[in-house]
Each structure stands twice: as structure tokens, then as C-alpha cells.
Amino acid sequence: MAVKQATNLKAVCERDALVEALGLITGVVAGRTPTPALQCVKVSGQDGRLTMAATDGEISLTLSTDKVDLEASGDVLIPADKFSQIARSCNDNTLNIMSDEDKLHIRTSDSRFKIFGFPISEAPESVDFGDAEPDFSIDANTFHGLMERSVFAAATDHSRYAINGVHLDLSGSELRLVATNGHRLALSTGACDSNCDKVDCIVPTKAMTLLKRLLHDGTGSVSVKVHDGRIVFHVDNGAGCTSTLTSNLVEGTFPPFEDVIPKDLDRKAVINRDALNKAVRRAHLMTNEESRGVRLIFDTNMLQITSRAPETGEAEIEVPIESFTGDKLEIAFNPVYIMDALKVIDADEITIELKKSEKPGLIRSGNNFTYIIMPVSLA
Fold it and tell me: Count of alpha carbons within 13 Å of 168, Cβ hemisphere only?
């Protein structure tokens, strides 16, 4: 087999676009690895476009843009962090880059850099979306919102592997993203254009977090394909930039989340989201490692929130309730879990549904966001 030889790349790049792309790329590369290529970015110029690709062995990201003046096609494999640090440090609006075998030269009006890289033959293979029909397509802004309202609740305890990810569940044209850490669960729902009847998989949290960053401006569309233990997201922002994020799926079975959504809650409060968020934040000031909960007392037209930290002090805040049905109830929650949910809700009002002080509570925003939170004991 003939060894692929690098050809020399020469291009003038927009500095801001390059910095943004490298910021995303460095989120993929492996932190510690005996394989140097997994800490590198492959930079390629071809057909008037600049493409950068990196992988950590499980997640791969390829970014492509036509916002470049490509003078000569070529490829180079160089450490991603160093390239990103240099690009961020420069003040010029454009950067001149030129490869020389396994090295990359970067020039500005007052600076010259040379980065030592590796043979292009060592670059890991990148997965392309190809001509395959996607399982579904979705507006980028809609998908970003779904992730915003779910990813934050995923587990970070690596001993519980199946919930260290986001459950992607597609039925017809309804897409649901679900995440949980065992103490809370977030479910967000939205519509998409589907080419299949069902998709059911667990996407690693790291991949979802990267995809959320890719869709931060909410423009364009996303095409998604699940195949052979992997998921591929192809993003087209409609402005000359495309990206492809590929990830291995999490093995295992996601917990039967529909079974844990309480259905017989007989107390319902409608509250202004911003007022509740501010009140919980203030009550949170009087908690500590020993007393992590805040007490919520729901009554006819007022919610009283109290907290207490031994040797520090106490807090008591009142929040008007727009409407309340059911009997008075006292319950305690982790305030951080409440604030996390309120932070991702856009609506002015939220609904809190409850049953008993020892039963989980439920926060809703319309029909697109459901959040279950387990109570804590303050005894």
C-alpha cells in the first residue's frame, strides 16, 4: 500500500472564524493519550474550502468553511491546542497559514510561528455523512432548545454508565430527549422531519454538549443518522459552513423514564418563573454542605421558601402564587436542581405539580418540557 504523502497547504484565514472553529475542535481532542494523533487537528484545503478534523477515538468532529482564500491545496496534522492558542493570541483580522511537509507556518503582520506536526498518514479516519438518507432532520434552533432543556440533567457519575448520556427517542415526527442522574429527570419534546418510524439510542453527554455549541447561533438545519453503533449529526448553517459530528453510542438500556413520571399529582401551583428563580437563589445563600435543601411551603396564594445553615443563619422569602389547587403542602428540594430547570425555561410562568412531601415533584413549561425532581430531607 502506498503511503499517503502530505501536500503543501497555503491559505489566508479569517482570524475570528478560525478561533471559533479551533475552540470547537479542541473540545474533541483527547486530553491524555499515548497516541499523539488524537491530540491533533487535521487541516485540509481543497476546492476553495478549509476543513479541520479531530477525534478522541470515540467522538469525531469535522468543520468546513468557504470563508478562506485558498491559494494551494494540501493537508497537515498538527497539535490542536497549540494551533488554537496561537490563533487566539494574534490581533490581525487574517492569518496566513502554510504547511511544509509535517510543519505549519503561521504569519501575521508582526508574528511568525512554526508548529511541528506529524505525518499526515497518521491522521485518524473521519466519518462522513455520505449520500445516506438521514433518519430525521430538524431545525437547528429547535434542536438546540431540546438539548438546552435536557443535557444539563445527565449524570456525571461514571459508575452508572447507561445514564451518562442523553436518551434520544424518535417516534414518527416527535423527538424526545431525556436525561437523568437518578435524582432528577429532564424531558424535552419537539417536532422534526422524519424518514423512519423509530430511533432509540443513548448519545454520550460530551457529544451532545459539543453539538449544542455547534448550534449556538440557532441557524440552519441538522440531519441525523444512526447506524452500526454510531450516530452522525450533519449541520449546515446555510452560510457556507458545515460540520459533521460523529459519536459512538452509549451501550446499555436507558431507565424506563415514562414509568417514573408521576401521574396522580393533586396539588398544582402556577408561579412566575423569574420571581421563583430569584427567590430560590436568595434562599440558596443560606445553605451549606450539611443543609443543601430549601423548604417550600405551598398555600392558597403564597409560596414561602425557607433555608437554614447552622452557624450561618436563616432565610425566609415569599413568592406570590398565580393559582393553586389542592391542600397546603410542605416539601424540600435541592435549590440547585430547581435553578437549573428555571434557567432553561423561556416561558413567563411555570407549573409545579406535587403529591406528598416525600414524593417527587414535577415542573412543567407548556407541553414541551417536563422536569421531575426528588425531594430531600431536612430532618
Answer: 27
Tell me how far apart the alpha carbons of residues 301 and 266 are, in angstroms, rounded to a whole number: 16
Identify whether the C-beta of residue 223 lies closer than 8 Å to the C-beta of residue 148.
Answer: no
What type of residue sits at position 131? D
Cα 190 from chain centroid (whole Å): 16
Helix (H) or strand (E) holding 151: none
Q: Give the burial class of 103: count Cβ atoms within 10 A of its Cβ; 0-12 exposed, 13-18 middle, 19 or more buried.
A: middle
Q: For residue 117, what are the contacts with CB-CB under 8 A and spacing of at least 6?
A: 40, 76, 77, 78, 79, 102, 103, 104
| pLDDT tens per residue, range 231-282 | 999 999 877 789 999 999 999 889 898 998 998 899 999 999 999 999 999 9
Question: What residue type is 62 in one-letter code?
Answer: T
205 φ/ψ sector (left φ>0, alpha ψ -120 to 50, else beta): alpha
CATH of 136-258 among 3.90.1150.10, 3.10.150.10, 3.30.1490.100, 1.10.10.10: 3.10.150.10
Instruction: Provide the β-strand partners of residue 235.
Output: 222, 243
Tell me the pTM. Answer: 0.91
N-terminal to C-terminal alpha carbon distance within the chain: 71
In the chain, CATH 3.10.150.10 covers 10-122, 136-258, 261-373
The edge-to-edge listing of strands for the beta sheet with 221-227 is: 74-79, 40-46, 49-55, 59-65, 241-248, 230-236, 221-227, 136-139, 193-194
Q: Return the C-alpha torsion angle 339, 341, 345, 347, nearest 10.
A: -70
